[in-house]
Structures are given as C-alpha cells and as structure tokens.
Amino acid sequence: MGRTLILLGLMSLFGLTACSSVKPQYYTLGTPELSSIASRPSSIKSLGVARIRLPSLLDRKGMVLRQDKFSVEVSEQYQWAGVLREEFNESLVSGLQAGLPQTRLQVAPWTLEQTPDYYLVVTVLAFEGAPQAQAGLRGSWQLLQGSSNRLIKAGTMNFTRPVQGKDVKDVVQAQNELMGDLVRQVIAALP
C-alpha cells in the first residue's frame, strides 16, 4: 500500500511538471539583408571565416535577453535552433557570400593547400536585446592574410538597432540587421 501511494505521488508530480513546462520556441538568424550595398567586385579570390569567438554566457542554445543594465535572462523558452556560435557563423558566411558573389568563402578549418587569400577572425563580446528596446552587437574583428597570418585590417563593432515589436522574434529580426551591419563593415574594409 505504501509503495502504491509513493508511486502515485511521484506520477502526479511528474504529470504536473510536464503540464507546467512551456514548449520552447526556436529561432534562427538567416542571411542578413544587404540591400543598402550592391555586391562589389573584389580582387580577393577566397576569404575564410575562422571560428567565431563568443563569451560563455552567449555560447548556448538559450537566448540571452537583456533585462536591464546589470542583468540578463538566459531563456529556456526562447532558444536558438542551433548553438549561437554556429548560427552566427552561418549568418556571417551567407551574408559575406551575398555581398561578395565572386569570392570563394571558406569556413575553418581548412587544409594547408586550401588556405584562403585572407581570413576573418570575429570576437563577439555582446549579442543581446530585449523586446521594445535595443538589440546590440559588440566586439571586434581582424582580417589576416591567409599564407602569412599578417594582420591586414582590424575593426570594432558596436552596433545597436531598435527592436520595434514586443516579441522575441522582433529581437531576432533586429539581431539579423546587426549581422548585416557587420557584413557591410567587413566588406567595406576589404582590400
């Protein structure tokens, strides 16, 4: 009798937990909109994109939503469809390919024989936002020569975009626009 009551109690507890959990919603960045720049011919035949560097706070599936100046929420309900590092990398590469259609884009790692003419290293310090507030992208990037690893150019990013709506999808839309800002900045800096 005691075992039956314990078993029923545990089943009830698991049932209540399952009913109260919220189904996650998944988001992806996609290719940034680059309508404000025409695809430009480039003398660069190949461009590599090294692994994106993210702080551990961002390198997860749960979206980081800014609460106020000193606090963030890592959401269990709102998640990236993949790990943010991969989402960011895919969005960056697809944006660069859209803006540089004649350039072969490569993603690290590459073999010695396939070393690109130049490669891009991106370090993200912040990539967050909140509905009806701002979305921000802060960090730095470096363009290096592929064969010598010599620094060609470096830049910082401190982009913000207003989040027009009250939903998390509006935050993701603003973050996608931030990716476009980064792509435009990198393309403008290419030799």
UniProtKB/TrEMBL annotation:
Pfam family, any one: ABC_trans_aux
Keyword terms of this UniProt record: Lipoprotein
InterPro entries with a match to the protein in the record: ABC_trans_aux
Ranges for domain ABC-type transport auxiliary lipoprotein component: 27-186
Tree of life domain: Bacteria
Designated name of the protein: Uncharacterized lipoprotein YmbA
Annotated source species: Thiothrix eikelboomii
Native organism taxonomy: Bacteria, Pseudomonadati, Pseudomonadota, Gammaproteobacteria, Thiotrichales
